[in-house]
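Dear colleague,

Thank you for sharing your sequence with our group. We've completed the structure prediction you requested, and as agreed, I am returning the results in plain text so they can be pasted directly into your records. Please verify that the sequence below matches your submission; if there's any discrepancy, let me know and we will rerun it promptly.
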Amino acid sequence: MTLQEKVGQLFFVRPDALDPAQTQEQINDANAAGVTELTDEMNAMLAKYPVGGVVLFGKNITDPQQLDDFTGALHASMDTPLLIGIDEEGGSVARLANHNAFDLPRYESATAVAAEGENAVRQMYQTIGGYLDSYGIDLDFAPDADVNTNPDNPIIGTRAFSDNPQTASRMVTAAVAGFEERHVLCCIKHYPGHGDTAEDSHKALAVTHKTWAELEACELLPFQAGIQAGTDLVMVGHIAAPEVTGNDVPASLSPQLVGSLRGELDYAGAIVTDSLAMEGITDQYSAGEAAVLAIQAGVDILLMPNGLSEAFDAVVAAVENGTIAESRIDASAARVLSLKEKRGLI
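Please find the predicted structure tokens below.
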């Protein structure tokens, strides 16, 4: 693979980011018109910026036939097929089940299903994995592995299985098993734990004030369980942990916190950032800065940068000028390709 192709594997974007007619504001806006088919202009963009994957949102979906056609065209668009992802947690975050054009099971919340026990959680994600697979979707950015310990948390709440770390750990294990049985890739999130923060990282940098020992006793337990169960990816959040690192660098850009996944948690799989278009990142970093810093921190997949061309070009330039070793790109590209191989795309 060329350097451009290898760097491209590290980028997962909204399909709208491949439409040169859309501004970044339109791309980020959930209520703006979305791309619903693959166009010649998008194919030209893919030739220039050969990304590794796309993430579908509600605005990219109109009905089952359109979704089938769109995922089929996306998969066929590249020699190294794109990995197609979605957020389908069950409950409030479900791009397909909550879409009126789809007749799919709807779940109250992860918390509600977890109250019925591990088997119910496993069955929920078997069901979700089954219908995602049927529509050509390869990866679900689920389950949520947070522990919902802060009642003031504005963004996690019932997306988490429990406010008890042991219960959350059992449910994460069951969820990963459900996805595995349907051969759909899954991703536990938001490392090192978004459940005890008072901020929404979509709008500001979230902060956990816990020490490493306190994280180990609570927030990290479901991540350890998910890793042991064989999760395919771990998503690192835009969450600062100043009592661990001594600074306010978000975990997604922190060599110490990303490194703890490889070290303390002994995780060898793919690591993905949360969306780099969230204000927890964009308030402090340009698209290029965030992309380079995330790779330097040890991340494998850059999710939805706030400017594809700027971020892509910055990473290529960083390799060419020696800021990032090409071997570092090779290692991450290999992890992405391994996901595609497991999914049967290559």
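Summary note from our side: DSSP finds 15 helices and ten strands in the chain.

Kind regards,
the structure core
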